[in-house]
Amino acid sequence: MKKKFLLFILFLIVIFYLSFSNVIFAKNEGFVKNLRDNTPQSIKNFLKDTIFLIPSIKKKNLILERDLASLKESLYKQQLSIEALQNKLNSELITYNDTLITKNKKLYNLKKISLPFYNLNNPYKNKKQGYLLVIEKNLYIFFWSGKIIRINIDQLHNGEIKFSNVENNLDQFLIDHQFKWVGIKDAISYKNEIYLSYTNKIKENCYSVGVLKSKKNYKLENIRFENFFSFEECVNIENSDKFSNRKYFGGFQAGGRMDFKNNFLFLTVGDYRNWALPQDENSNFGKILKIDLATSEYEKLSKGHRNPQGLFIINDDYILSTEHGPKGGDEINLIKTKNISGIQNFGWPIASYGEHYNSVSANYKVRKIAPMHKSHIKYGFIEPVKNFTPSLGISQIEKSNKDNNAVFVSSLKNMEVLEYDINIINEELILKDNLKFDERIRDIIYHENKNLHYIFFESEPSLGILEKK
Fold first, then answer.
1. Nearest alpha-carbon partner for 424 in 317, 302, 305
2. Is residue 301 in some structural domain?
3. Which segment of 59-68, 194-203, 417-426 scores lowest on mean pLDDT?
4. DSSP string covering 326-369, please?
5. CA 406, CA 424: separation in Å to the nearest integer?
6. Is residue 68 in a domain?
7. Is the residue at 78 inside a domain?
8. C-alpha torsion sign, points 440, 386, 197, 319
9. Whole-angstrom distance, CA of residue 40 vs CA of residue 33
10. What is the C-alpha to C-alpha distance for residues 452 and 450, in angstroms, rounded to an integer?
11. Cα torsion at 100, 101, 107, 108 (round to 10°)?
């Protein structure tokens, strides 16, 4: 009997506590306002210091957390503004001009020029990532922010370093710059048009990858883009694991790399950290798409991808793609474009040579959806031709010479370029050489007429001119 009485008293205390907790956090109107206004201050103070001490502290903590978040955001914006001013003062300067010696003792000359990425009007648009594109006699740089600059290639190699801003309408498409991951994801030209992939906001808090296009003109001083390709499927920024309530949206895992062959555009689409989608054939996420340039109709060429960051077409039959793994497990995959039945499956997230980050919940749902087995072929998937553990922070893949028999593979984390010979018969890549740098490498392109490479270093950021001696 005594035990039941104690439980009843405890039950009343809990109900009393919860009821008045709601009063404390409720809006100051109606019954709540009347109750507050007619309670003596001495009783209010007593209740706050005793029964409602915890909810009172919780309320104060919420206010402090809100103020702290606001202060951090303000400091972040100030930091971006300071970086923009520093960049304005220090851009268009040669920061390096010297000989590089590769692992196999080959000699290259590397010149680095600081790039003007700054935006003094909107601090959130000071994004250092970017991509390179040669169009006729000019080299264009497309920053994530939508800023476009260009320089005449002959003047560049004659030491006349002056970049021109290119007017454009990308602000119509690039929305929510306060998110670091929003931006241009690749730039490429084909025949008479320029194509850009970008973070496409489908609806509130829901994002995907889209492709824009623009006609080339002689001067390209004002580029007007229009929609070319998009899909309505999107991943919501509020996505969370229902078991642990942890967020699993990842805007940086967008993919977006492009290449062309025979009037088809090949586009990589990342999984946005939504593990259920790469193996779902009804979803476009975690796939490589083959898009008809004439009709915009598309098919899924491959699935089971996490975040493909590089794309290189070897010939009519094969494509190489580079892919970020999780903690370890970066990959280079060889993808067939002809004589295939069904969608080629590269395994993610069922198979991977990487591991989950420590922040990922080790619950049964994660283990079921993303077990990351350490074999692909054992579970019916295609093995990568190369995998890297620990990760390189792999980025673009590009031809290393005038022929398509060897490639450069660049990296962000390791700040290096690996050179591989391609053996199509055995479907393998053979490591040939290694070039070390001191900045993260986002993009690398080959200029056939000059027989050299342009590199986008994103730490500064800088334009690199790499020429074999």
1. 317
2. yes
3. 59-68
4. SBS-EEEEEEE-SS--S-EE--TTTB-SSB--TTS--SHHHHHH
5. 11
6. no
7. no
8. positive
9. 13
10. 5
11. -30
Determine phi and psi for 273, rounding to 5 degrees.
65, 25
Q: At 17, list the tokens.
A: 């506590």
Count of all residues that appear for the chain in the document:
469
Measured at the CA of 51, the angle between CA 49 and CA 53, to 5 degrees, comes to 45
**Residue 320 backbone dihedrals phi, psi, to 5 degrees:** -105, 135
Distance of CA 74 to the CA centre of its chain: 24
Torsion of CA 468, 316, 267, 410, to 10 degrees: -20
Whether residue 130 is predicted with pLDDT greater than 70 in this model: the reply is yes
Percent of the chain with pLDDT over 70: 86
**CA 178/CA 55 separation, integer angstroms:** 33
Span 69-97, pLDDT tens digits: 888 888 989 999 999 999 999 999 999 99
pTM of the model as a whole = 0.87
CA gyration radius, the chain? 27
Pair 9, 125 in one domain: no
User: Which residue segment(s) compose the domain that 19 sits in?
Assistant: 2-51
pLDDT at 308 over 50: yes
**25 and 124 share one domain:** no
Instruction: Give the separation between CA 461 and CA 91, rounded to whole angstroms.
Output: 9
CB 311 within 8 A of CB 319: yes
Nearest CA to 268 among 253, 284, 287, 251? 287
| Cis peptide leading into residue 55 (ω within 30°) | no
Instruction: Give yes or no for a contact between 300 and 289, defined as CB atoms under 8 angstroms apart.
Output: yes
**Which amino acid type is present at position 118?**
Y
What is the Cα–Cα distance from 343 to 33, expressed in whole angstroms? Answer: 63
Residue type at 171?
D
Residue 273 pLDDT level (bands cut at 50, 70, 90): very high
The CATH number covering residue 285 comes to 2.120.10.30
Whole-angstrom distance, CA of residue 261 vs CA of residue 317: 10
Task: Work out the angle at residue 301's Cα, subtended by the Cα atoms of residues 265 and 410, and round it to the nearest 5 degrees.
Answer: 65
Q: How far is CA 348 from CA 384, 388, 416, 456, in A?
A: 11, 15, 25, 29
Give me the mean pLDDT over the 10-26 stretch. Answer: 49
Which pair of structure tokens corresponds to residue 161?
A: 């370093």
Domain for residue 70, yes or no?
A: no
Residue 117, token pair as written in the block: 């990425």
Amino acid at 418: L
* 212-to-67, 142, 145, 189, 260 alpha-carbon distances in Å: 39, 13, 15, 11, 15
Whether residues 32 and 158 share a domain: the answer is no
H or E, element range at 75: helix 53-90
* Helix H or strand E segment including 22: helix 2-25
